[in-house]
Predict the 3D structure of the following.
Amino acid sequence: MKTGKEDPYFEYRRELVEQLIAEGVVKSERVKDAMLRVPRHEFVWPDQLDHAYDDIPLPLGDTGQTISAPHMVAIMNELLDVQTGDKILEVGTGGGYHAATLAILTCPTLNSPIPLVYTIEINHRLVEFARKNISRLGFQNVVTIIEGDGSRGYPEASPYDCIVVTAAAPRIPSPLIDQLKPNGKMAIPVQSRFFGQELMLVKKDEKGRIKTSNMGPVIFVPLRGEYGF
Ligand code: SAH
């Protein structure tokens, strides 16, 4: 993976991360490191290259889906407080950008003998796009991409320390709660009862009790599938 001087986009990325720190979005060294190391320009659709380091979501071709804005990836990663070695499920791979940041958080050396980030995507073209990106950039030992309906989670590799859902759900899918470990955390955008969507942080304690907190309004594409819209 190219970082530092040999990456022509490094300065743009550094400026973006400085901006996110100034805004109070990036708080920890670990999230800062992940945002600096993942080359977002390698995950955008080729026609969006000039905007790769703008802090906005960008269209993924004509799929109707988007790559998340960097601030949203950073906010969710700060909330999850990923520890080295954590097993993570992401629902909604898109181009694989968020999954790459999670890979660095759980395995900074990227040479894990077993996958630690499971990410599930329902759109076949995006599965192919993300697989290419993840392997080309050297994240493939940590990140496994599954094609399927992630609204049901991915019980095969459960339970997870962290779950992140990158599409908005009508309500929190019960299989995702079931697949969380005791002391596990989930960040998920949920359709509000009143208007728009809200980012929810779901915590399961050691006895399996659930506590949810509303982290404020957000905008995501809708979650599809059995527990989606
Ligand atoms: N995590 C991505 C953001 C992708 S946008 C990033 O790093 O930028 C949300 C994605 O969720 C879309 O690609 C969409 O196809 C996918 N999606 C929607 N419903 C889904 C479902 N039920 N299972 C898996 N993926 C789903």
About this structure: Residues 110 and 139 are 6 Å apart (CA to CA). The radius of gyration is 16 Å. The chain has a mean pLDDT of 97.
